[in-house]
Design a protein that fits this description.
Structural class: alpha+beta
Oligomer: single chain
Largest sheet: 6 strands, antiparallel
Strand content: 15-25%
Helix content: 25-40%
Order of helices and strands: HEHHEEEEEEHEEHEHH
Radius of gyration: 26 Å
Number of helices: 7
Distance between the termini: 93 Å
Amino acid sequence: MKKVILIFCLLACGFIPQVNAQNVLDGVYIKEHTPLRRVTPLCYLREADIMWARRIWRVIDLREKINVPLKYPSHDDTKDRKSLMDILFDAVSEGTLTAYDPIDDEFTKPMTLEEFNKHGGAKVDTVQIPIDPNNPDITMDTVIAKEFQFQYIVQYRVKEDVFFDKQRSVIETRIIGLAPLIYDLDDQGNIRENSKPIPVCWFYFPETRKVLSNNEVFNRQNDAERRTFDDIFMKRLFNSYIIKESNEYNRRIEDYKTNPMDALLEAERIKNDIINLEHDMWEY
């Protein structure tokens, strides 16, 4: 009988570490709100209620301090939080999000997963590696796979519509598309000299909201009040600058304002015109 009790105690002691390991909680409470959150629906719009509208393209630069939460943590740096590109990449890889051709901001040409990875710098190369240190002429083909180049995503291009809804008497901005921009890389994976960031693909933003609303963004002031990526975009908690407005020539600001300072002033002029338009619609 004593042997049976001793064996039972030993088995119980052996299982205790496993039970404790399974019940470990990294924090003081279980975070349930964000993973189960639903997308907040937008107000229905009628064409007859839209008195004025303008299409705007702008750029979010991840090197600006206010936009840093969209970039960090870096890829695979931590498991509990992800960067915006991590979330989009995982959703495309799982098949829950569609990526569209980088030159197609009207979302008519879906990309395959292979095309998406290729535009992100992922590729497979075959190199010759010597197998005999005494005879470098004897080589062997070795396949080297390069993953998606997350570190070279430096900006996001945003396509949006600004409109006045007379039914609610408000000027509202709604994002239509989102495109991550990556540095132009050469065949060796190095940044080309004097190159500008180019789109990896386009995402239809209303579709991305389902993914963004279930992932948190770091809040500098309060860890208990983590906003989601959907909140960042819907509440306009980012900084950006305008690169294009709809025009008859379909040209960007840089096409007719070649000086960077003049281009910046032109972007400010477009923004101020929209603000003044909203003020002119009211009587005080």
